[in-house]
Specification:
Blueprint lengths: L28 E6 L3 H11 L3 E2 L2 E8 L2 H11 L3 E7 L7 H12 L6 E6 L7 H7 L4 E4 L5 H38 L5 H16 L5 E7 L8 E6 L16 H13 L7 E7 L4 E8 L6 H32 L9 H14 L13 H8 L4
Parallel strand pairs: 1-3, 1-4, 4-5, 5-6
Antiparallel strand pairs: 2-3, 7-8, 7-10, 9-10
Helix pairs in contact: 2-3, 5-6, 5-8, 6-8
């Protein structure tokens, strides 16, 4: 007999309730044990309870029937990495039916399913693997401590890689959708607010954040808040110094000074809008950003940088088309546009025309500064 043989069983460990949100709030790998034999749960926990994979501990969630497993998976299925699943429980093929439910009804494609059976005759290995979307098939007698460790390590590593790929895919979808949504916005302030909301969505955090713009041609050189969401909305048009959150204020200042992104628990994204204007979008991510998060943000920034450029081009074209370059007031086209807008809002309105006699000669003699 070797030390790897599972020959000693202990009483079942007390565990967090599978349906409790607290069971899933921990940064660990969640492993669902589905078996009607309590000794299997105890043996599994005893064998690998204190082992960590890639810096995370294991959190075991025990259920004793396919029906209980279905209930847990329906609520928290996307957070479970591995399922250790018995074949024979309330019926001879309860485990096999649950596999179909997991993949087809609940549509949980990432979770790794390891089928464990003490009666291989009920579900022959080759035909079961060919017919069902499972990731491993083991007889319970095969799973020594080292065998169980190896099986779980492979499954968790596979789940982690698939999960990262899925996050990347969803993130890229959000970036494409955000680019489409933001492309319809014309004003800089509205575009900046939309960018903040899209960043929050990409990081999966609450819609709280702001955008500051710094005009380097301004003598005060004080960054101004031009857009904000959530609790910061009341700060629009205020200087950055009015921001009460010192951490966010520091992140914006560092980003403007270094002219680069500052990523961390408070993320500040830098955008250069020409020689005399810079923009920083800042949100609370509340945790250190993963490599995937940073890569997605880089891709998002590259995408919306074009949007900021288009906004500025649109503003410049609109200014050329509707403003007098000398006086800075609406020209004939701008005047006509204002009249049309007012007529739509106030159909019964009247237009009063004021003519200044000899204005042209006075302007030519005394110059416009007079």
């Amino acid at each position: 007999m070797t030390n790897d043989d599972l020959v000693t069983f202990i009483d079942e460990h007390d565990s967090l309730e599978a349906t409790s949100p607290a069971a899933f709030d921990q940064p660990c790998w969640h492993v669902l044990i589905v078996d009607d034999d309590p000794s299997v749960h105890s043996a599994t926990r005893l064998a690998i309870e204190n082992i960590s994979f890639e810096g995370r501990k294991l959190n075991f969630i025990s259920v004793y029937s396919a029906a209980e497993a279905h209930e847990v998976l329906a609520k928290q299925g996307e957070q479970i990495a591995v399922i250790l699943l018995d074949v024979v429980m309330e019926s001879d093929d309860a485990g096999l039916q649950l596999v179909s439910t997991i993949r087809e009804t609940l549509r949980l494609k990432l979770v790794r399913i390891i089928l464990r059976t003490g009666q291989p005759g009920y579900a022959p290995e080759v035909s079961t693997i060919q017919r069902l979307d499972i990731n491993d098939y083991k007889a319970k007698s095969e799973l020594t401590r080292s065998g169980l460790f190896t099986t779980l390590a492979v499954a968790i590593r596979s789940y982690s890689q698939l999960h990262q790929m899925e996050r990347s895919r969803r993130g890229l979808e959000k970036i494409v959708q955000a680019s489409c949504d933001l492309s319809r916005i014309r004003g800089l302030n509205a575009f900046a607010e939309g960018a903040v909301l899209q960043i929050c969505s990409l990081l999966g955090v609450s819609e709280e954040g702001l955008v500051c713009v710094q005009n380097r041609g301004n003598s005060s050189n004080e960054p101004q808040i031009i857009a904000a969401a959530g609790s910061y909305a009341s700060l629009i048009n205020d200087p950055l110094s009015a921001l009460p959150d010192a951490g966010m204020r520091l992140a914006v200042e560092q980003s403007l000074k270094s002219r680069a992104h500052c990523m961390g628990e408070t993320t500040a994204l830098f955008f250069h809008l020409g020689e005399d204007r810079s923009v920083v979008a800042c949100v609370h991510s509340n945790q250190a950003l993963s490599d995937i998060d940073q890569q997605l943000l880089e891709a998002f920034c590259a995408s919306i940088s074009v949007g900021f450029d288009n906004i500025l081009i649109n503003e410049r074209l609109e200014s050329e088309a509707f403003l007098d370059s000398l006086l800075g007031i609406p020209n004939r086209s701008g005047f006509e546009r204002v009249i049309l807008r007012q007529q739509k809002r106030f159909p019964d309105s009247l237009l009063m025309l004021v003519d200044i006699d000899d204005f042209s000669s006075i302007n030519s003699t005394l110059d416009q500064h007079y």
